[in-house]
Amino acid sequence: MDLSKRFNKNLDKIEVSMIRQFDQSISDIPDVLKLTLGEPDFATPKHIKEAAKRAIDADESHYTGMAGLLALRQAASAFVKEKYHLTYNPDNEVLVTIGATEALSASLTAILEPGDKVLLPAPAYPGYEPVVNLVGAEVVEIDTRSNDFVLTPEMLEEAILKEGEALKAVILNYPTNPTGVTYSRQQIKNLAEVLKKYPIFVISDEVYAELTYTGESHVSIAEYLPDQTILISGLSKSHAMTGWRLGLIFAPTVLTAQLIKSHQYLVTAATTSVQFAAIEALTNGKDDALPMKGEYIKRRDYIIEKMEAMKFKIIKPDGAFYIFAKIPVAQGQDSFKFLQDFAKEKAVAFIPGVAFGKYGEGYLRISYAASMETIKEAMKRLKEFMEQYAD
User: Fold this and answer.
1) Number of domains in the chain
2) Which positions ≥6 away from 333 have C-beta within 8 Å?
3) What pLDDT, on a 0 to 100 scale, did the predictor assign at position 390?
4) Is the overall model pTM greater than 0.90, yes or no?
5) Which of 190, 320, 353, 366 is an S-S bond match for 175, by CB 3.0 to 4.6 Å?
C-alpha cells in the first residue's frame, strides 16, 4: 500500500535545510574544521548543571503545568524587566517552551491560516519559512541588501501596503542570524511607529539579545509595541544551553490565552529538570553571557581583519556570533560551489549564503562560536585557498 501521496500537500513546499544539505555534502572530509552551526563552544555554566542535578535527585520528574513552572515564569518576567524594561505578568503572559524553535512553531501555527502572508526581512534564518508554509501561509521577503541588511521604516511600510489585508504578521529577528545586524533604540522606535498603524502581529525573535556588542543594551520592540508583539527568547545562546531546549514566549494576556492552545498540543510542557536549571540561569546566572561576549568580540574582530585583507566585504556584526561576508566577485557568486570547493581543498566548512534564501547568494556565513585556535587555522587555510584560487 503506497501512502506517499497522502501527506499534507504543504510538505511539498518544504525541503531539507540547505545548511544540512551542505553539511552532508562535506561530512566525509577527514578532520574537517566546521565553523557552521550556531553552537557555542562554551560549556553550560556549572551552577546551572548543578541545579538540574538537584532537581533530578529530588525526583522532579513529573509534568509541570502547560505554561511551565510558576517559579520559572516569575524568574523570566523579572529577567526581562531588569534587562529590557519589559513588564509581563508571570501568571498569564509567559509560556515556557522547548527551545525558541517550538516557541516560533507554536506562535506561527496559532496565528496563521491558509492564504495569509508574513513579511520577513532577508536574508534570514531558514527556520521560519517552512513553518509558515506548513500551515498554508506564505512568506514575503524584504530585500535588505541595499541598506547593509538593516530594515528601514520605508522598506517596511512599502511592503505592508503592497500586501494589504492578506498580511497577518511580520517576523523580526535581531541580533540577526545570519548577518549579526542589530538595531538601536531609535531604529526600533521608528519601526514601531510604522507597525502600530496596522492590525498585524509582530513576532520578534530576540534569542541573541544577550549577545550585543555596541555598548548599548538590547532594545526589544515589545517595549514600544506590547499589544502586538509576541516576543521569542531562550537560553541556547545566552547560557550555552542549545541541547537543553528551553525557550520562552512573552505576550499580552489576550494573545497568550490563544498561544497556549497550540503550545500544549505540540509538546504538553517543557522538560521539568530543565526548567529548574532555567530558574538558576535566569536568577544567579543572569549575567552568564558577559564572559562569552568578551571572547566573541575578539574572535569577530580577528576574522574581520583577516578576511578584509582577502578582499571579502563584511558589514561589521554588532550581535550574535556570525560573520556574513560577500564573496569577492572574481571568485564567482555560487556560494554553495565556492564553499564546497574550499571544504574539499582545505577541510574547512562555512555555510553558503544561499542557505539563507535568494538574497543570501554570493555570501558566506561563518560562526565564530568556535575556539580561537580553530578560527586561526581556518583563516590560515582560507588565505591559502584564496591565493591559490586567484592563480
Assistant:
1) 2
2) 327, 361, 362
3) 63
4) yes
5) 320
